[in-house]
Automatic annotation (TrEMBL):
Pfam family name, one: MFS_1
Signal sequence residues: none
Presence of the UniProt keyword Electron transport in the record: no
Protein name: Siderophore iron transporter
Family according to the record: Belongs to the major facilitator superfamily.
TM region positions: 41-58, 78-97, 109-126, 132-156, 168-187, 199-220, 259-280, 292-311, 323-346, 366-385, 463-482, 530-551
Gene3D superfamilies: MFS general substrate transporter like domains
Subcellular location: Membrane
Length: 589
């Protein structure tokens, strides 16, 4: 396909961006680095990020498998949903903070702060004496994981042209192809001794792996700062920080970061979603006044957030030129629904597999990582397809359709007598990973293509913010279904309320039951009854992703950092059905 192809854009009118506008310091610095440094240095930076990806992959492949053991040791296995909701909300809200910080200061400083929080989280979890301490440590780990993932995405977007971006992101995910298998041995050995070492080891590994990337970014930043390289780009200071007083500087920085808006959003969703997983522990359940108060106050905070962002905020977390962009809105809806539906089947899926399948710890860990391995394997394939065809929408539509087949198999697994077969579960996971990969990679690429560079970090973080909120909403719904249905089903099938309660609070107790015993079969049937509802919900929400994908803009993936800067695009308006007709006629356009 021709490099000179000009794609008419439906969003160009939303980006009448003043090219002479002073850019934030972090954006200006990274542009100077890209313009000035030899490609060899950029390659070294990518390799450093690859080392970070190895640590992140090993962390996410192992630490999630310790959660059922940790919560069961504290007799709070059902609090997995509460833990996941808290991690999702805090990990989501912190991303715009991190993105703004990297814009206002530099990418290296943002990395340093993330590393510190990351290590603190591992230390706290390794030493946690109570479930409360464990949750606090997990929150710090969630911030570290979110920050590393976000900063890697921002730096790749800063340094690569649009046509290669999906390929590079796919390559940065390839460590999972190895850690998926290594994780099984690590988890088996650690869980048979002490799960706390599973967190403690990363307090040592993480700094060693991240320091090379941080050092590389600092070195390049200092080269620019000291004028070693010659370039014709002025590096402005942070435009909003005009005060000399330190406290006033902090205040002005918080205003630019939109701290108040993000705090309102975090409190709103925390108060609205956490009761869904906590009500079973409250006296009277939903009739408890504290549960009602949390929901009401959360709603008030959400209304206050909307009013503040639209009419009051001097620096809203998302500029209106991005908020009014149809492509970005489609990306938000797709990712929100994808994450919400994903957690319908994913949140308790490892516990489901532990109960309904007769697997060792090692093979159970392999199965838990199957979808992750599929996402990373096909990520490279999709990246190369995007590079060759210079389009992504056709692969999003195909991916959304394949995911529906995979989720259909999961629904089928809950109707198999005395538990599903391992082959059905694996086939469902593989198909779901193929579909998820095409859908998610296309969505992220579209979001980055439709905004100018000055909004890139913010756009990536806000898309991730609403994706995580979607995950939190899904987890809250699952928590409500799980805590209200599973105890009843266990009591019904097991026949002993005391045993049923112990099985509900500790999945490892069920796992220890002899395979084929009455209580094991009864537990399998109870888990299948509840998961049937959850899997059907995931299947229904995935249809929404498929429909919205048909309305997605199909940008041409060229040599620029995005598809809206560098040249004027023809602007035209069409009826809503044009997008579907155009896709049918020209699926690769």
């Amino acid at each position: 396909m021709s490099q000179d192809f000009k794609e008419p854009s439906l969003d160009s009118h939303t980006f009448e961006h003043d090219t002479e506008e002073e850019k934030p310091r972090g954006v200006a610095r990274i542009e100077a680095i890209k313009q000035t440094l030899d490609k060899r240095y950029i390659l070294v930076l990518i390799l450093s990020l690859y080392l970070c990806s190895w640590t992140y992959a090993l962390d996410s492949s192992t630490t999630t498998s310790y959660q059922p053991y940790a919560t069961s040791q504290f007799n709070r296995h059902s609090m997995l949903s509460t833990l996941s909701i808290a991690n999702s909300i805090i990990g989501a809200v912190c991303k715009p903070f991190i993105a703004k910080m990297s814009d206002m200061t530099s990418r290296a400083i943002a990395y340093m702060i993330i590393l510190l929080l990351y290590v603190i989280g591992f230390v706290v979890d390794a030493c946690s004496p109570t479930i409360s301490a464990y949750v606090i440590g997990s929150v710090f780990i969630a911030i570290g994981q979110s920050g590393i993932n976000l900063m890697n995405s921002i730096l790749v977007a800063d340094m690569t042209p649009l046509k290669w971006r999906a390929t590079v992101n796919g390559l940065l995910s390839t460590p999972y192809l190895c850690t998926t298998w290594v994780a099984g041995y690590i988890v088996q050995n650690i869980t048979t001794s002490n799960w706390r070492w599973g967190y403690g080891m990363f307090a040592i590994i993480t700094p060693a792996a991240l320091i090379p990337a941080i050092g590389m970014i600092f070195w390049m930043d200092q080269k620019i700062n000291h004028g070693t390289f010659k370039f014709n780009l002025r590096l402005p200071q942070i435009t909003v920080l005009k005060s000399k007083n330190t406290l006033l500087k902090i205040k002005e920085a918080l205003i630019e970061i939109d701290a108040l808006g993000l705090v309102l959003l975090g409190f709103a969703f925390s108060l609205m979603l956490l009761p869904c997983s906590l009500y079973s522990y409250a006296k009277g359940g939903w009739h408890n006044p504290s549960m009602i108060a949390m929901e009401v106050v959360g709603g008030v905070f959400l209304i206050a957030y909307c009013i503040y962002e639209i009419w009051i905020a001097p620096y809203p977390s998302l500029p209106k030129r991005v908020l009014l962009n149809r492509t970005f809105v489609c990306c938000v809806i797709i990712d929100f629904c994808y994450q919400m539906g994903g957690y319908f089947w994913l949140l308790y899926f490892s516990s489901y597999n532990m109960v309904v399948l007769n697997l060792s710890y090692k093979h159970w860990t392999y199965l838990n990582n199957t979808e992750t391995m599929g996402l990373c394997s096909f990520g490279v394939v999709y990246g190369l397809l995007f590079r060759y065809f210079r389009r992504y929408k056709i692969f999003q539509v195909i991916g959304s359709s394949i995911r529906l087949i995979g989720l259909g198999l999961m629904v089928h697994s809950t109707k198999m007598h005395n538990g599903p077969s391992l082959g059905v579960i694996v086939a469902a996971l593989v198909l779901t990973s193929i579909g998820d990969c095409g859908d998610v990679m296309g969505t992220h690429l579209a979001a980055q293509a439709c905004v100018p560079h000055v909004d890139l970090a913010t756009t990536i973080s806000v898309l991730s913010l609403y994706s995580s909120i979607g995950a939190a909403v899904g987890q809250a719904i699952v928590a409500a279904v799980w805590t209200s249905n599973l105890p009843k089903r266990l009591t019904e099938h097991v026949g002993d309320a005391t045993k049923a309660l112990s099985y509900f609070e500790s999945v490892t107790t069920i796992y220890a039951l002899p395979w084929g015993s009455h209580d094991r079969i009864a537990s399998i049937q109870a888990y299948q009854d509840v998961c049937y509802k959850l899997f059907c919900g995931a299947l229904g929400i995935s249809f929404v992703c498929l429909i919205v994908t048909l309305f997605q803009t199909n940008y041409y993936l060229g040599d620029g950092i995005n598809a809206v800067e560098g040249e004027q695009k023809e602007d035209y308006n069409q009826k809503w059905y044009y997008y579907i007709v155009d896709f049918v006629k020209h699926p690769l356009r």
